[in-house]
Amino acid sequence: MAHHRRPKQPSRTRVTVLTTAAAAAVALSANAANAAPSEKPSKDEVKTKVDKLYEEAEQATEKLNGAKEKQEKLQKEISTIQDNVARGQEELNDLRDSMGLAAAAQYRTGSIDASLQLFLSSNPDDYLDKASTADQLSAQQVEALKKIQEKQRELAQERSEASEKLKDLSSTRTELAKKKKEVQGKLAEAQKLLNTLTAAEKAALAAEESRASRSASSRVDLGNATSASSFAAAAFSAAQSKIGSPYVYGATGPSSFDCSGLTSWAYAQAGVSIPRTSQAQASAGTRIYSQSDLQVGDLVIFYGDQHHVGLYAGNGQVLHAPRTGTVVRYESIGNMPFQFGVRI
Description:
The protein is α+β, with helices and mostly antiparallel strands. It contains nine helices and six strands; from the N terminus they run αααααααααββββββ. The radius of gyration is 36 Å and the shape is elongated. The chain starts with 11 loop residues before the first helix and ends with a strand.
């Protein structure tokens, strides 16, 4: 006869856990249903975040510019060294050939000495250290062999220098790629934020930028302004001719600029060469720590890490390439943290 077992009843603990889990799930569902959708950031909040990203992008841009400048300098130095090595190798070959001819002549007359045999059959780098060898050579032969030894040392040193610079160039290129990626990332993030704005909000931001630029322009009074020098005046005039040109990171003109690209281009038009980056330009002349002592054409350095530079325009205004999304324009010197001026 078959026996029927009663189904096992769940324990009290298991029932409690299941009941609690079910209650929590219901509560979460209710909260999710009643939760307000995440609020879209306001136009001003977006502007604040975008401005911060653009500032960070400019910091990275100046480092990118520095890496580019270093790369170009290293490439020129390496090219010069390689040319020197090639010429030096030709001179060494000529010296060896002349010694070979002399040895051949002695061999034909049966008078070749042991020292030249040593030279021709092995590395001569250390032969002069052997006094007995030097005693057997003529003064002319000693001089020729000394030149060979000296030329070998020069070539070894130049090859070593070229090797070190090639390593430096490789690390500089790595840094260049890293900084370029950083700049592009900041700009992409800023653009993503701007894309959350409506057309009306974007128009309102553009109108604010335009009003600020017109206001700064109206305060520039070059009639009563004193230029720092004739070439500072020429540099400032060149920069003025580029008002309205777009800011593009890494650009040095003539149709677009970043901040230090504008200042270096402007001074180049005046026949004066200044460094490429804002940090290097900060040390390119006499520093002026009082804004009241600034004159038209002086460089103006901003921010603690000196990542931004413009040209003083008089009456508390600067002419500069501000950041991505803007153009070369006048702006109040008080809109950014002033560090000092530089008189070239």
